[in-house]
């Protein structure tokens, strides 16, 4: 098997996919999170400011999902095909919510009528909240494993089997961390009374996050056998949950010092550490089979050919700096507080 | 069987709906870049007003294109899992390239393009417009490469057997430049330019008929007419080259396009007609030996007919393939006639005098759209029964683990949400057009 810097290609691609989905979680995390606060703002102007805070950015942020999905398809086609077809219903709902969310952003402020804006406000809030929740649900399902038989055939339930109690818990945890992320992002972008209200809301979000995080962690440790095996073998990785905890603990301190950008970095780090925890726990498995570990989808039996992975790693090496450049330019251009003008939503 | 049909209906519906928007974005994008370029060069405010106006329409079409495009990306996995495992190694690298090179470029610059008027200099704004336009062109490249590989596979070998069989890349560039990619990318680009320019022509013809925004509409109409004329003509060239490629690489598809059954003897070219698949007869208006002549420059040359293929290896819906193909060609010919005649009047200085011509331009916005859809239907139905030509059948490619009820559930959801989305699109497009570009001008009276 070909390697680069002593790491084999499937593992490298695993890192690429992990990086892309972490980027997606961090960037769309504040977009979706901001959307989940939408109905907490009462005035129309506040709602407009909140939408325009993500206005020029959300389309670009969403590209991380598109590239992440493409990277999964490209590098681990078996994982992409097995996961999406096995979780048909939640993914279809997720995709339609994405469409509704885009429509809400585009059309909400296009008309003045109260009923029009109220309807879109509800759609916007609901789609953002359910998207965040479903992302957590999908993550939990991957951790729990699927009923995968021989030849990666899915043998589980079809409609609502994805909603286990554990999945619901992880769903709420994801929602809570996105809402934390979203509140910090909006603090960075707003002024005056809306800003003051968000300072108050952020505290609620943090409590919501810490509660769901602690409950989910205990549930994982008690009921999900095997989750801690990896850590017993490599105790050094216990540093990941510790780092996640330290990062989140740093957020209130930075917010009280009004260092919102720093706070956003630390809440993003929390997410990154938690995702690393998941990635480390799973590796080299991508989708555990609950029927027989032999049937699990792993980075080796799901991977594209060495040649293909080599080509794609080259594409990433060329493309990543370009992408970073575009994002730097975009975020620099729209740095600072929201100012509504005639091009705003 | 039922699952397969439902999966195909859902894919066809979602991709056909998606394909309304990206071609419009690419075409409007081109016109917008020209308009903004003229503004920077001449400093004429009229071009700025036009750029700002078309940017608003561009933003809506682009947005719906992205939203419906994400669905396509994941629908391969949800509904075509066997196919996805089979082609992942090939399709994947094209998709990865598309994401990084095309989508990254267009979506990051899109924010600056739409919301950045007051934040960046005119030059940087113009660069953003070019960035978005190029990004949309690139994204068409990679997805058409992937689709072309399904039609004419190259640069690969098949590994494994039965369920575990899959195609793997052996030569990346041979895969990218497979026999049909270049022809089809050019054909798709030009179809997109026509879709966008005809919307521009339509809207400004409407203003001219109403006597509103006359000055700027004349300018916009001339820009769009120039672009439309060039690409109507070149589309004929790339269409012909594409058809030759189909004759060589997918003879069964070409035979279905012309309803051609027997190989021996001269092959006719139909202007319009009806295929009776049962009796293998076509009734209609034809040029005797025309197909033979177009492909081999000889009215007598034989062309491979459908009967040269076993029944299970050739398209089942011959009449549908025939009709879609001929609708596309008829519209293409009509657009050439229309644009050339308009150019002739322009040359004689009478372009805006004939009301009936402006009326035709006002409604002809639908024609490139219909041609684009019909062309894809002909291409994809003509590819049947294969999902990967000659290797994997459509009936083997769908997700076995997904039940027909699940697809029915998602199909109904798609129907509802996409109907809503389409109504919103038409409503806001109509509103923006009726409202007109006067918000964009500092001195509104100047342009009215």
Short description:
The complex is a heterodimer of chains A (345) and B (448). Helices cover 72% and strands 3% of the residues of chain A. Chain A is an all-alpha fold and 345 residues long.
Task: Kindly report the spatial arrangement of strands forming the biggest sheet of chain B.
Answer: 1-2
For the termini of chain B, the CA-CA separation is 59 Å
Unreliable stretches of chain B, pLDDT < 50, 5 or more residues? none
Kindly provide the radius of gyration of chain A, computed on alpha-carbon positions and rounded to a whole number of angstroms. Answer: 20 Å
Quickly count the helices of chain B: 15
Q: What is the overall silhouette of chain A? A: globular
- What is the radius of gyration of chain B? 23 Å
Instruction: Name the beta content range of chain A.
Output: under 5%
Helix percentage of chain A: over 70%
Walk me through this protein's architecture.
The complex is a heterodimer of chains A (345) and B (448). Chain A is mainly alpha-helical and 345 residues long. Chain A has one domain (7-333). Chain A has helices spanning 9-36, 44-54, 58-75, 77-86, 88-107, 114-144, 165-189, 192-223, 229-233, 239-256, 260-282, 306-333; strands at 3-4, 7-8, 285-287, 297-298. Chain A has a two-stranded antiparallel ribbon with strand order 1-2. Chain A has a two-stranded antiparallel sheet with strand order 3-4. In chain A, a hairpin with a 2-residue loop joins strand 1 (3-4) and strand 2 (7-8). In chain A, helix 1 packs across helix 7 (165-189), helix 5 (88-107) runs antiparallel to helix 6 and helix 7 runs antiparallel to helix 11 (260-282). Chain A is globular and about 55 Å long. With 448 residues, chain B is mainly alpha-helical. Chain B has one domain (2-446). Chain B contains 15 helices and six strands. In chain B, the strands form three sheets. A two-stranded antiparallel ribbon of chain B has the order 1-2. In chain B, strands 3-4 form a two-stranded antiparallel sheet. Chain B has a two-stranded antiparallel ribbon with strand order 5-6. In chain B, a hairpin with a 4-residue loop joins strand 3 and strand 4. In chain B, helix 3 packs parallel to helix 8 and helix 4 runs antiparallel to helix 5. The longest helix of chain B has 36 residues, at 214-249. Chain B is globular. At the A-B interface, helix 3, helix 4, helix 5 and helix 12 of A face helix 3, helix 4, strand 2 and helix 15 of B.
């Amino acid at each position: 098997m070909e390697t680069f810097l002593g790491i084999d290609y499937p593992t490298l691609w695993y890192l690429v996919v992990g990086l892309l989905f972490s980027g997606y979680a961090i960037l769309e995390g504040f977009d979706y999170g901001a959307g989940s606060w939408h109905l907490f703002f009462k005035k129309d102007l506040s709602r407009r400011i909140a939408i325009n805070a993500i206005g020029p950015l959300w389309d670009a942020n969403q590209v991380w999902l598109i590239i992440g999905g493409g990277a999964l398809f490209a590098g681990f086609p078996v994982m992409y095909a097995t996961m999406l077809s096995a979780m048909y219903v939640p993914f279809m709902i997720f995709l339609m919510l994405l469409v509704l969310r885009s429509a809400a952003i585009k059309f909400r402020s296009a008309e003045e009528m109260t009923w029009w804006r109220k309807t879109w406000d509800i759609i916007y809030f609901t789609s953002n909240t359910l998207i965040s929740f479903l992302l957590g649900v999908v993550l939990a399902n991957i951790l729990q494993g699927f009923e995968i038989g021989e030849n990666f055939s899915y043998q589980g339930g079809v409609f609502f089997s994805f909603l286990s109690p554990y999945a619901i818990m992880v769903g709420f945890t994801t929602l809570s961390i996105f809402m934390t992320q979203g509140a910090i992002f909006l603090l960075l972008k707003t002024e005056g009374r809306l800003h003051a209200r968000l300072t108050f809301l952020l505290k609620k979000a943090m409590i919501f996050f810490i509660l769901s995080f602690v409950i989910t962690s205990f549930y994982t440790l008690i009921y999900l056998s095997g989750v801690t095996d990896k850590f017993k073998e490599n105790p050094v990785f216990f540093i990941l949950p510790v780092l996640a905890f330290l990062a989140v603990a740093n957020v209130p301190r930075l917010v009280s010092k009004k260092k919102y950008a720093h706070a956003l970095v630390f809440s993003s780090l929390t997410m990154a550490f938690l995702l690393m925890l998941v990635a480390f726990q799973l590796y080299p498995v991508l989708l555990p089979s609950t029927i027989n570990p032999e049937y699990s989808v792993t980075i080796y039996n799901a991977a594209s050919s060495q040649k293909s992975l080599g080509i794609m790693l080259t594409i990433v090496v060329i493309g990543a700096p370009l992408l970073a450049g575009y994002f730097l330019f975009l975020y620099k251009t729209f740095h600072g507080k929201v100012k509504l003008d005639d091009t705003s939503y | 069987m039922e699952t397969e049909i439902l999966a195909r209906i859902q894919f066809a519906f979602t991709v056909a709906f998606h394909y309304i928007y990206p071609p419009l974005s690419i075409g409007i994008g081109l016109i917008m870049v020209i308009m903004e370029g003229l503004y920077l060069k001449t400093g004429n405010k009229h071009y700025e007003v036009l750029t700002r106006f078309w940017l608003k329409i561009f933003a809506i079409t682009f947005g719906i294109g992205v939203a419906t495009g994400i669905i396509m990306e994941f629908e391969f996995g949800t509904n075509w899992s066997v196919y996805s495992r089979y082609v992942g190694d090939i399709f994947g690298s094209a998709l990865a390239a598309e994401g990084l090179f095309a989508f990254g470029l267009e979506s990051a610059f899109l924010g600056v393009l739409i919301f950045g008027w007051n934040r960046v200099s005119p030059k940087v704004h113009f660069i953003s417009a070019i960035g978005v336009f190029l990004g949309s062109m690139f994204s068409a490249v990679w997805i058409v490469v992937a689709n072309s590989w399904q039609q004419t596979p190259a640069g690969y070998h098949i590994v494994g057997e039965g369920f575990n069989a899959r195609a793997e890349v052996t030569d990346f560039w041979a895969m990218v430049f497979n026999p049909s990619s270049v022809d089809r990318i050019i054909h798709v680009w030009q179809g997109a330019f026509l879709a966008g320019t005809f919307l521009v022509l339509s809207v400004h013809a409407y203003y001219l008929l109403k006597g509103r925004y006359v000055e700027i509409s004349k300018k916009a109409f001339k820009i769009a007419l120039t672009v439309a004329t060039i690409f109507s003509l070149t589309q004929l060239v790339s269409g012909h080259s594409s058809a030759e490629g189909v004759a060589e690489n997918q003879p069964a598809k070409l035979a279905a396009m012309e309803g051609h059954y027997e190989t021996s003897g001269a092959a006719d070219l139909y202007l319009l007609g009806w295929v009776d698949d049962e009796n293998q007869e076509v009734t209609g208006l034809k040029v005797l030996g025309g197909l033979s002549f177009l492909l081999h420059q000889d009215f007598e040359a034989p062309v491979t007919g459908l009967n040269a293929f076993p029944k299970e290896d050739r398209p089942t819906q011959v009449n549908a393939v025939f009709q879609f193909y001929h609708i596309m060609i008829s519209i293409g010919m009509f657009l050439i006639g229309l644009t050339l005649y308009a150019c002739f009047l322009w040359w004689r200085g009478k372009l805006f005098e004939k009301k009936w011509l402006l009326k035709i331009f006002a409604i002809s916005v639908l024609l490139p759209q219909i041609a684009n859809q019909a062309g894809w239907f002909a291409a994809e139905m003509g590819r049947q029964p294969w999902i990967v030509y000659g290797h994997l059948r459509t009936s083997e490619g769908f997700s076995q683990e997904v039940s027909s009820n699940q697809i029915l559930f998602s199909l109904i959801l798609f129907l509802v949400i996409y109907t809503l989305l389409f109504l919103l699109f038409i409503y806001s497009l109509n509103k923006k057009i009726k409202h007109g570009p006067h918000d964009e001008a500092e001195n509104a009276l100047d342009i009215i």
